[in-house]
DNA sequence: GCACATCGTAAGCACATGCATATCAATGAA
DNA sequence: TTCATTGATATGCATGTGCTTACGATGTGC
């Protein structure tokens, strides 16, 4: 039984994710956003989803738990919910200009902090890392599940 | 305000971590281990820690919540706890041969599955990704916190 | 028209987590 | 010697999460 040559991928990524989330927290607080609020603001501009349930699925949230998040964002004028004329069950979500601005300023602050950390890596490694992460992050979730 | 050229690092890493944890779950179950049990088994062979509290900190666990995990592992003969003669408050932890074997077979299965996913990346990217992740994962947690 | 599915919404339950508190035993410093 | 600190342990509380159930409104297919 040979010694493994690397740590588990999960063992590196999961704690790293925790550290990054912890790092985001003060930035989000300074922008008066919770994590899920920010996730929704970000997803609404990058994911072409039609239904709230699809949005929840896309961002890994629970569709029932996301309702109060959407309520809050709507109440603050950061997003709108309009019935879809093609299917009156559906509420179409859209960012307001205010929502877009808040998303952008928050994202800028978050990414600035991330760049500070990423600069600890060589530039070429940085580019590859981001490219590879993007590829992995875009994989369907069940890609990772073990085969039976 | 220019469009960002990349997703947030956290926005890629955190869901990826979730997917990897979900993928691990059936493998751990097949080896009769919980996630924290496996984390402890793995950490005991790679982290030179003396106290249980230090182990908990090293693996991002709560020192009080880790006690029942250690109890269970000890009861199953996977690890031993002996008083440290140099400081009788401390319980020195060590894997048994059985614990080492279980850790190894589990890790092999987990990494085999991870390799299957990693092979979706070009080989050179794979190497850089793992190297970069290792670097980032080894950073002290407060490296990531924003500067005041 | 009817049975079934879907969407949004609310709420319940079990469990995990982060943090705090408390206790006992042991250690180290003043 | 006294007191503060440390290590292990147990437990409580608040919060978050995953999943489930249920409901009303709407849509689809037969």
TrEMBL record, chains A, B:
Q: What is the lineage of its organism?
A: Bacteria, Bacillati, Actinomycetota, Actinomycetes, Micromonosporales
Entries under SUPFAM superfamilies matching the protein:
Winged helix' DNA-binding domain
> Alphabetically, which GO biological process terms does the record hold?
response to stress
In this chain the HTH marR-type domain maps to 6-138
Q: What is this protein called?
A: Putative transcriptional regulator, MarR family protein
Show the GO MF annotations.
DNA-binding transcription factor activity
What organism does this protein naturally occur in?
A: Actinocatenispora rupis
Mention any Pfam family matching this sequence.
Answer: MarR_2
Q: Which SMART domains match?
A: HTH_MARR
